[in-house]
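Table 4 source record.
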Amino acid sequence: MSKSLKLKTASFLYDLGWKAALPILRRNERLKKGFDRRTLKQSLPPEADIWIQAASAGEACLASEILKTIDPGNPTKILVTTNTDQGLQELEKTAYHISHNLRKVTATATYFPFDKPSIMLKALKAVKPKLAVLLETEIWPGFLSACRDLEIPVLIINGRMTTKSLAGYMSWPDLFRSMAPKEILAISEDDASRFKTLFESDNISVMPNIKFDRTGTEENLPYTSNPISSALKPKTPFIILGSIRKEEEPQVRMLISSLNKERPKTVIGLFPRHMHRIEAWKKMLTEDGLPFVMRSEIEGHAPFGHIVLWDVFGEMVPAFSMARAAFIGGSLAPVGGQNFLEPLSYGVTPVIGPYWSNFAWVGQEIIDSKLVRQADNWEGVLNEILDITRKASKPARIKNAFSKYIETRSGGIEKACEAIVRNLS
């Protein structure tokens, strides 16, 4: 079979797969909202000079930074799309703001259409973009093939690709190479190498990760202004176990028991990642004979030596202002890790387990410099927390070191905007 026939067959099968999947997707809780917009049955997306796709909330925040910063020089319409409700809320807010501040840039936000080739071709014919921009790992065959057929240049910025993803794409390399983007800016040499392997393109370079431009230190909240001051006395010895995932609960359970034994007067703030795990934690703490109190039931202040089981949303970040140390979960089990930069922003040294692939973009140097402490298991986490609390550094010193770390890695937004403007002309 010739290469051309193989590509046509792949496109046909991909389109057929979407045709079969759409009735099932209509019943999906996450996708049924905006379903008619995703299939273009409600309306077509508006014309725009640039189409930026940002998969979910995280990428939408990066797209927002681009919208706020970019200056093409001429009046420019930008369409920003996303796959999730949360991402759309972020983009709609930013699009409204920039479209009403007398800049030359105007923006519209909507859902990203389903990647069925016929749907994508219809969408791109309606938008007529001069440039399509994909953020991070957005490699959609239907979108890319339609851009190729309509001769619309594609730019990938803040690009990242895991070894696992590359292996999946390489199951049909000719398909992806036939629709290679015009230019790719990857966030590391390793990511750039994987993109080169897939697309066999030389127009691939490395840029600073935009996420560093969105990261910074925060002013610690005064005790009287902190929403958790109603739960903790001033200068309470307080340790946070934050964003704990179900998969690591057995290890965290042992960590809590040992920490309570080693620091019998310390208050431990236990923040499950998902609220539906609260009841399970109540049972585990009771079985272990550990003193605990629900955050929502505290009257006065939490007693010293107790675990506070946090059943109130939105208080972990302000809690960092009062913490002496913090373990950030999702890292004692292979689920990718949670955001360990938040405590650093408030001058608290975070401790993590061995799994933090979701934040590999931060760089191993953050571990090597001791800004973040990494341990192999719960016992190692315990030892690191005890060491931090024995000789705690001043928050200002930690924030200063963190600021310097970020400064040497910033500039991603500027680089991204330059690439967009360059490819637009």
